[in-house]
Design a protein that fits this description.
By secondary structure, the chain is an all-alpha fold. The protein has one domain. It has helices at 4-7, 10-40, 45-80, 93-127, 129-158. The chain is elongated, with a radius of gyration of 19 Å. The N and C termini lie far apart (43 Å).
Length: 162
């Protein structure tokens, strides 16, 4: 008698984890970009910095976990379905876009945000609070746009649109 684990398609499990990770990650970016940061513009400098810190303190670990789940599940799918050669084929350009967006976000979440951006927010908010908040909003809008493009391209590309 076969064990249920022997017949389970782990590639489907990896894909489900991948999609959940992307939903949590990019959904959070959407919330920060379209709701939280614009709402900060209505607050005083001291209030928005304090509120941003409180939100970021809870949000960053969740975003890091989601980004790591996307990496691990994506690598597993590449291995499981043996998709490595797609990176050499032009018609799979959307896979390179997905990787590029992931690398950009990972660099921001794991390197820039904790070591550089936090300092910029605190020092910049003291000198130029509106300009600092505008910069944060602009960066989030760029990242959201790239993320949405990558999601559209990945879904379209994986279903034959391109």
């Amino acid at each position: 008698m076969l064990n249920e684990l022997d017949v389970m398609d782990w590639g489907i499990v990896a894909r489900a984890i991948h999609v959940l990770g992307v939903v949590i990650w990019i959904g959070s970016v959407w919330l920060v970009t379209t709701v939280l940061l614009p709402g900060m513009k209505e607050k005083s400098r001291a209030n928005w910095v304090r509120e941003f810190d409180a939100i970021e303190h809870r949000f960053a670990p969740q975003a890091r976990i989601a980004v790591l789940l996307v990496l691990l599940s994506g690598l597993y799918m590449l291995y499981y379905y043996d998709l490595w050669d797609r990176f050499t084929q032009v018609e799979y350009w959307w896979m390179d876009l997905m990787i590029g967006v992931w690398v950009l976000f990972a660099a921001l979440l794991f390197l820039v945000e904790p070591f550089i951006f936090r300092h910029i927010v605190h020092s910049g908010a003291g000198r130029a609070p509106e300009e600092t908040l505008d910069l944060m909003l602009w960066l989030h809008r760029v990242m959201l746009a790239l993320s949405l493009l990558a999601i559209f391209a990945a879904i379209g590309g994986s279903h034959g649109l391109f």
